[in-house]
């Protein structure tokens, strides 16, 4: 997969097959090189996730790797008020390790922790969680998946028994009915969106459940059969009402439920769901969705043939995010839409390695492979391999670490590849927590906002500069191959190893393939994965082991991973974030195609000119009553904070709802959002914030 080639302009060069580091589609590319220069990224026709297609980000937005803002030398400082001082890697390691060890000696072993990122490879994530478990001897590890898809892990784990999507992307080609909930694939997952639209053009029917009229609803060549434009925060009410229609109109698949689920449990669930307060008519005023539309959508989903659900952060980033995921799983089980091509429950993962970062044990309760730290047998296998005794109590999540910092019991954090000050909710709380720590180590490409509170900066490497694997939204493990030497001197896995060894470990990995071999030896779902296999077959979807040596495109074919599928009652509970006279509108957020998350990479490439600022979408009626015209500056304020944005008047949003993206630091979207979070996982409720808007003279 490295080859000599003639690059486009006829100059001899070489090309390396690797994987896009942006979204969870996981497109494969040939990086074409002339000497040490990356000439272009060519979508790889043999890439199983993209089959030669790509979007603008993967194709063009790699300029950040060579951007002048990159920090290439380690830096330290005694206090965050001091200037940074460039030092050698040795000195940086000694300083960082000395501080973390001193903190643990004074405040106990639970006083430090780590954060890893869905931007990192599986191997890097594995090492970071190993660092906290086997070196710091606690389970204080978390990942930025906390703030996006942690409810997916919980909800699908509870109902099906495994925390992952059920299908491969190819499955959409056999779908008759597509339900898209809280996702905007055109902007968020463009290459998959193209395949989805192709299927729609072939005649598949589409149901969109989203507060905003996204492109799929009435875009070029596609039109949704039903758009349920619900009020933000009412997902559970709508999904439960769909289940109500399926149960009360007896549209469920009795044979499937009797063989694949527990019939007695189903009957209890059916009694619950049939209650009159779950009927579409009973929730019409609450959700803003006409009951007739909900009934029609439920009938189409249940009786329209192969039906597949695709969902995104508009499902998970709510105070009832986990409940909605459970409700979605209930719908698939009710209708038998699981375990064959064209159906299933498919979380569209935002970042390139959300799936992998969760698989690798970066949550504080799970060892790699979603096995609880309380499981004695599992813990024993890791203890034997790592030569340590492991903590059997779940560790702290990100928000708990920050709370503990404020009460003085948590003092040290190693944060790899995540800018929590920009990406996590309630910016003031994050800043206060970081400021209260004695040692914050940021390991990243750029001096990000979190680094303002750091004492140590380890320069990071880009995906072009390292070996490893990413796991995409369909559980596909793709190889990341080194295209050029790390500009900072070391790949991220090497930096983590140096840090672990400075803290007292004796790790001796010389290549990430050895880390993957260790993952495979300790994780049954990865038992058959190796770099040799990935080089031979291109990619595999886990589970990949002796039973399925070439991976598993479809899950739950003969039975659920947990045995019987588990119906769980889903009762709507209103969020604590309320509108009122002072804050009468609801703000929800999303992404745009040409930018990516907080924009650290895309803002440092040429494509920034295509979307130079975040704007606030306002319904013309809401704008008119406030005297706001197209392009005006508006002040957007919530109970948490305020910011200023330009107005875009559009009926894509309903009256009472406003919408923005969050790609530019000046927007400070998370100054606006609340600190409410999902009841099961603490995933922040980014998608519902009560706000007021008023005319402004600008920032
Ligand atoms: Fe990269 Fe996603 Fe675009 Fe594919 S669709 S090129 S993975 S950003």
List keywords for this structure.
24 helices; binds iron/sulfur cluster; NADH dehydrogenase activity
SSE layout:
Blueprint: E1 2-6, E2 12-19, E3 28-34, E4 37-43, H1 56-60, E5 75-76, E6 85-86, H2 89-107, E7 112-116, H3 122-135, E8 141-143, H4 150-159, E9 177-181, H5 185-188, H6 190-201, E10 205-209, H7 215-218, E11 226-228, H8 235-248, H9 254-260, H10 263-273, H11 280-287, H12 291-303, E12 307-311, H13 313-316, H14 321-334, E13 344-347, H15 354-359, E14 366-367, E15 371-372, H16 376-386, H17 398-406, E16 412-416, H18 420-423, H19 427-435, E17 439-444, E18 456-459, E19 468-471, E20 476-480, H20 492-502, H21 512-522, H22 531-537, E21 539-541, E22 585-590, E23 615-618, H23 620-625, E24 633-638, E25 642-649, E26 657-661, H24 669-672, E27 689-695
Parallel strand pairs: 7-8, 7-16, 9-10, 9-12, 10-11, 12-13, 16-17, 17-18, 22-26, 23-25
Antiparallel strand pairs: 1-2, 2-3, 3-4, 5-6, 5-18, 14-15, 19-20, 20-21, 22-27, 23-26, 24-25, 24-27
Helix pairs in contact: 2-20, 3-20, 3-21, 4-14, 8-11, 8-12, 8-14, 11-12, 17-19
The structure holds iron/sulfur cluster.
Residues 20, 22-23, 25-27, 50, 54-55, 57-58, 189-191 line the site of iron/sulfur cluster.
Domain 4Fe-4S Mo/W bis-MGD-type: 13-69
Keywords: 2Fe-2S, 4Fe-4S, Iron, Iron-sulfur, Metal-binding, Oxidoreductase, Repeat
GO biological process, one term: respiratory electron transport chain
